[in-house]
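Take a look at the protein record below and flag anything odd:
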Amino acid sequence: MQTSSTDWGSKGRGIFLADIADNRKAKDVGDAFTALVNARKFNKPDYKIMGGTLERTSISEQVSTRIFSMIKSGNLKAGDKLPTEKQMCVALGISRPPLREALKALTLMGILESRQGGRYTVTDLSPTRLVTPFNVFLSVPDEDLRKQFEARAVVELELVRFCVERANDEQCARIVSLGADGHNFYHDPVGFRLLDAEYHQAINMGANNQILSLISDGLYNVALDARRLASATPGVNEISTAQHCRVAEAIADRDTKTAVSAYREHLDHVLETTLHANHKLPEQKDE
């Protein structure tokens, strides 16, 4: 006797929720996954989640979004184990490939980790863990670069504002000194990159916000291949140094408006030179 897809959905839903109830021993988690599972009509193969018909390519994104939403709401917390892949596939009515894609994405983001036995566990969600994935991007498409610099602007301009308000005189003096030191590294790309990292880190330290600083560090390391090439381009480091000095002087003068404006100009310069260098990377690799 064949079992209908509806029967499998009901059976899987029971296994899925029972496993979570045992894992969490809390009603709210079961309710949350019940909502997730019930949102899908198991007797139809059109992959409906949360009411809308989805293309197969978007199933993994929807699943990862729903799991992430449960973590944000507190229904899943650090240390909680997800059900097995088999249980989740049966309960959600999807095949393993899109489920694994969703779980892999959340793992790369530092939200889940896979432990012995194949069960995925919610991580401690520490800021350091969550920004680590940014560091793996060495060369990225232009559109992604633009989005990355949009994110940098949001985070780093706020850090500049905080730095103006919170940095002590010693920290301000160090930022000014690091800015001026750039004059000594116009023709030394490696030395300039090291100095540049110290300069930006000094601003982050002066801002005194560890979480924003960690995010800034992660974003700073995106597209490193292109950034290395850009720093070796004649004239680029001279412009960056002049911009560093203007930002540093404004911070020391406690002039928020000028500091933010100068820093935004600097980010525009870095984006422009990084995009230009990014176009040259394929040529270098072919040589």
Summary: The radius of gyration is 24 Å. Residues 21 and 130 are 27 Å apart (CA to CA). The first helix runs from residue 5 to 24. The domain at 131-286 is CATH 1.20.120.530 (Four Helix Bundle (Hemerythrin (Met), subunit A)).
